[in-house]
Specification:
Layout (H helix, E strand, L loop, with lengths): L1 H14 L3 E6 L3 H14 L3 E7 H7 L7 E7 L1 H10 L9 E7 L6 E6 L1 H7 L5 H18 L2
Antiparallel strand pairs: 1-5, 2-3, 3-4, 4-5
Helix pairs in contact: 1-5, 2-6, 5-6
C-alpha cells in the first residue's frame, strides 16, 4: 500500500506545475485584505505579512506592488515536519500577491503541494491533497 501511495505521489509531482498563478479581479491591496480575512476566518495562524514594495522603497528601488502572507495550520505543518524536518524550510505556507509588470494585472501565486511533497519526500498524500484543496479555495475566493 505504501508503494502505491509513493507511486501516486510521484506521478502527481511529475505532472504538477510547481507554482500556481491566478489572476485577481482586485488590486494587490484589496486581494491581500481578502486573503488575510479568509485565512483568519478559517482559523489559520498568520505568522507574517511581508510588503516587498516597501522593502524596495527603503533601498530606493522601484518595484510593482507585491505582498506575501505567511500562514499555516501548526497541526498540519508539524505532521509534515515530523516526516521530514527539512520541510520546515518551505513551511509555513506562503501566498504572494503582486502586480504583474507586463500588464499591471494582480496575480496570486503559491507553490503546489505536490512540489512540497516531492521536494521533501513526503508520503502524506491525503494531507498534501487537503492542503492543495484549501489553497485553491482560499486563492479563488480572494481573487473575486
Amino acid at each position: 500500500m505504501k508503494k502505491l501511495a509513493l507511486i501516486l505521489a510521484l506521478g502527481v509531482a511529475l505532472l504538477a506545475n510547481d507554482i500556481i498563478v491566478k489572476t485577481s479581479d482586485n488590486s494587490v491591496e484589496a486581494t491581500m485584505d481578502k486573503l488575510q480575512n479568509i485565512v483568519n476566518k478559517k482559523g489559520f495562524t498568520v505568522f507574517a505579512v511581508v510588503n516587498h514594495q516597501q522593502g524596495a522603497d527603503k533601498v530606493r528601488m522601484k518595484m510593482p506592488e507585491s505582498e506575501e502572507i505567511i500562514f499555516g495550520n501548526p497541526k498540519m505543518g508539524t505532521t509534515l515536519m515530523l516526516e521530514n524536518m527539512q520541510a520546515g524550510l518551505d513551511l509555513p505556507i506562503r501566498i504572494l500577491v503582486y502586480q504583474d509588470p507586463r500588464d499591471t494585472s494582480t496575480k496570486i501565486a503559491y507553490r503546489d503541494g505536490a512540489w512540497l511533497s516531492s521536494e521533501h519526500n513526503l508520503t502524506k498524500v491525503k494531507l498534501i491533497n487537503k492542503m492543495n484543496f484549501v489553497l485553491d479555495n482560499i486563492t479563488t475566493e480572494a481573487s473575486h
